[in-house]
Design goal:
alpha/beta, TIM Barrel, Aminopeptidase, 3 domains, seven-stranded parallel β-sheet, seven-stranded mixed β-sheet
Length: 570
Amino acid sequence: MQSINNAKQELIIRACERGITKLRDFMILKNEISTQFKIDSLPNYGLTQVYEELLKKKKVKKNSDIERLLRKAKMRTLSGVAVVSVLTKEYGCPGNCLYCPTEKNMPKSYLSNEPAVMRAILADFDPYRQIEIRLTALEKSGHSTDKIELIIMGGSFNALPTKYQYWFVKECYRACNNFQFSIFNQFPMINYQKKKKNKITRYQDSKLNLVELKRQLQIEQSKNESTKSRVIGLTLETRPDLITEKELVKFRDMGATRIEIGVQSIYNEVLKKNRRGHDVSETIRATKLMKDFGFKVSYHMMPGLYGSNLKKDLQMFKDLFSSQDFQPDQLKIYPCVVVKDSDLYKLWKEKKYKAYTDKQLLKLICDIKKIIPPYVRISRLIRDIPEESIIAGNKTTNLRQLIDNHSQKEGWQCQCIRCREIKDKETNEQEINKTKISRRGVLYTPKLNKIEYNASGGEEVFLELIDNHSHLYALLRLRLPVGAGFKPAPTETAIIREVHTYGQALDVGQIGEDAKQHKGLGKNLIVQAEQIARKAGYKKIAVISGVGAREYYKKIGYKLEDTYMVKTIN
């Protein structure tokens, strides 16, 4: 063990001395070190911690190239944030959907062998422990955990007991606030000097007071505004028929910025056959309400449902973006599969239901991606249901890769946000104007593109910064209300529903010459949005800010009003 640790130290020191910037050169050096120390293959695990230890002992100097090379599974933070998903425990579900698995002691629609569920089981569904485990894994892999996009899964969140909802969210914030990472012990430190105060607390409904829970949540949120691991976005899952103004006010109290709703289909006959429990009018109503509150709206869509077909499914996605009633900001496309613990399994056994073949599904998803507008992000294409649990339907785990290969052969490119994100692509200096800013390295200023469309009784303005290849650097969603408008404020208030800068996530305040974040791109878009709102006659502009992003908006003139960051612009 000591020999391996010494080899790792030697690897990092030599890599820094040689100024290695390419992965290929790093791997060649790694093989040299392995031979020198008579190790078959020097493992990658723990290299980031060795580097941090050498930094602390001043044996090496801070090196952004080495940090980039040491970062494992870099896709996890290439969208500019660290996504952390946690799962609530089982409390029953108001729905009785035909396709939904009903495994005992599992949240409705989730299976115990899914990766996210397995992590939750390991933590006994405790939110504090789930976040602790996830942040530790990200830190060990060399990822920044300063900007967290927290996703709370488990089905219809607001169908759970109200006390449990507040307790769960409060514990999520508390875990982020208390998280520190030890590079020496390689496990999270929970501020041991205050160990009793910060210990994990179990949920006991009979002992909790709702007023006190709300007070504790506000305390943790206040801490999170300036702590290291900040929750800059919070996503909650629910059903369209459970969306009300009262529920949305509660979601804002919790700091939620995005809501995912299980739409599945926009055709009433399909919804009825699958026992969804609501019709399309509920989806239309909920979508407008969420947008008027400023939430980002994500639809879960399910092609291949009982009673649908390939032609109808393709038309469904066309209708999503041709009708003003829908126009979601994000999509999770979950092709219907047959699992044993579902009523759909019985229909499949009786040969009354047939799933799409791999070839049919591939063509359908390709046709769908061809019509997706550039202001929409397809965040997921399949559920993480293990192959052994799928009786019929898609078992291809690399479906997105197959679609990318197919599009390259046919010569078309998906225009959704995820496919256009700049990620870690090299910047072509001849195609992008370059402006030097003192103490901030280089600021790339790609061209501004504006897309306007009507949706849910309001005007939407989508601003994006892109290069000549349409690679996306940053975006902003501005809603200009019409009529009743923005619910928590008067009609003279416009609302920014999202601001996001893409590229590798950086720590708060960190500057990287090759990075896309912290170069003023988001601030540039906010200024543009303020000008658009002012010209349209709005006196104020509000931002549905995550708790951890409030400090950012305070620095550019916004003040906290209720749960929104608001600025007078007239």
